[in-house]
Design a protein that fits this description.
There is one protein chain. By secondary structure, this protein is of the alpha+beta class. It has one domain. It contains three helices and 17 strands. Strands 1, 2, 3, 4, 5, 6, 7, 8, 11, 12 and 13 form an eleven-stranded mixed beta sheet that branches. Strands 15-14-16-17 form a four-stranded antiparallel beta sheet, with helices on one face. It is elongated and about 120 Å long. This is PilW family protein. One of its GO terms (biological process) is type IV pilus assembly. Keywords: Membrane, Transmembrane, Transmembrane helix.
Length: 358
């Protein structure tokens, strides 16, 4: 064989087994390094995403809960108005307006709704709060005829319907009643007759004037909202003296920690629903992953925030709670913490009650 042919044969030889093994080892080392970087980046991304979800749940929870707390016990007229409730049955929580704010410690169940293990049931051992107020943007009252139980308002688009529980107020008093007749979009008259013929619980009287004890006769105590001191005479305001008055739908909510459909816990809000004149309660999941809620209250002339169990019935009804400290524990779903558990954050927020600010 010539030297030229031998040289060509050498140039076409393949890798040896040792060279192939070394190449494979080096390739595996590179793949392992790439895999480690990928896994690290994946873990970082998952942790960041989980933290983002935790923060978002906390933000939504505080934003919506704080709004209801801030507006609790408020009305569209002025603070500290005497309130007269003419509803037939004040046993349901949404019909009882003795206090615009009421707190429950972890051992105290809601009236009419105990602790439970089902979806949307309240978790035993967690605090809760009940909040009531009138919608701040009330509808102006043009005239009020107490004898016919008719409130004429400034717009036909008042968005009030038979069965709605509302509050009328002026600078003299406020009254809570159930709408018995209204046609939003076509008519500007709101009717508040007595009886329970069409809606429940209905009104014990069509008279909305303050009365102690309550006057539940058919006409009750006549009071004309929009007339100075409610004085009504000969089909009009006495001496033609008037002052501003509004009517607005009541907002009643309950906030609590409940069981969600995924085997965890969430922050829930229970709200009143009116379906064709039939009242019911919706329980809505607001923020997932909220494991715990601790609520404490600042009393007038108090030095420290106290638990609900330390607030007396008189404190609640007399409006002596000025602010609420909300402490939420929020947990993620992914196991990405350095302790081998899901991320968890505890966040505290203090909310002053606007209607009771000094």
């Amino acid at each position: 064989m010539s030297a030229q042919r031998l040289s060509g044969a050498r140039r076409t030889q393949g890798f040896t087994l040792i060279e192939l093994m070394i190449g494979m080892v080096l390739g595996l080392v590179v793949l392992a390094a790439v895999g480690a970087v990928f896994e690290s980046n994946k873990h970082t991304y998952t942790a960041t995403e989980s933290l983002g979800r935790v923060q978002e749940s906390a933000r939504v929870a505080f934003e919506l809960l704080a709004r209801d707390v801030r507006e609790s016990a408020g009305n569209a007229c002025e603070r500290d108005l005497p309130v007269y409730n003419v509803l037939n049955d004040t046993a349901p929580w949404y019909a009882n307006f003795n206090s615009g704010l009421f707190g429950y410690d972890g051992a105290t169940a809601f009236p009419g709704l105990g602790f439970g293990t089902g979806v949307a049931d309240r978790v035993n051992g967690t605090d809760a709060i009940e909040l009531k107020s009138s919608v701040s943007d009330g509808i102006n009252v043009v005239s009020h005829d107490p004898s016919s139980a008719q409130l004429k308002v400034s717009t036909v688009n008042h968005n009030l319907f038979p069965g709605d529980i509302v509050m009328a107020c002026d600078f003299g008093q406020a009254a809570i009643f159930q709408v018995t007749g209204a046609n939003s979009g076509t008519n500007d008259t709101i009717v508040h007759n007595n009886g329970t013929a069409t809606v429940l619980p209905g009104n014990c009287s069509k008279g909305l004037g303050l009365s102690l004890p309550a006057n539940c006769s058919t006409n009750g105590n006549a009071y004309a909202f929009g007339c100075y001191r409610g004085e009504w005479e000969s089909g009009k305001c006495k001496n033609n003296r008037t002052w501003p008055a509004t009517v607005s739908k009541l907002r009643m909510t309950r906030w609590y920690i409940g069981n969600n459909a995924r085997g965890g816990r969430s922050l829930y809000q229970a709200t009143l629903r009116n379906t064709g004149g039939v009242l019911g309660v919706d329980r809505n999941e607001i923020a997932t992953g909220v494991e715990e809620m601790r609520l404490r209250y600042l009393l007038r002339n108090g030095l420290n925030y106290v638990e609900a169990s330390a607030v007396t019935a008189t404190n609640w009804t007399a409006g002596e709670v000025l602010a609420v400290s909300i402490d939420l524990t929020v947990r993620g779903t992914d196991v990405v913490g350095t302790d081998g558990k899901p991320l968890q954050r505890r966040i505290t927020h203090t909310v002053a009650i606007r209607n009771r600010a000094p």
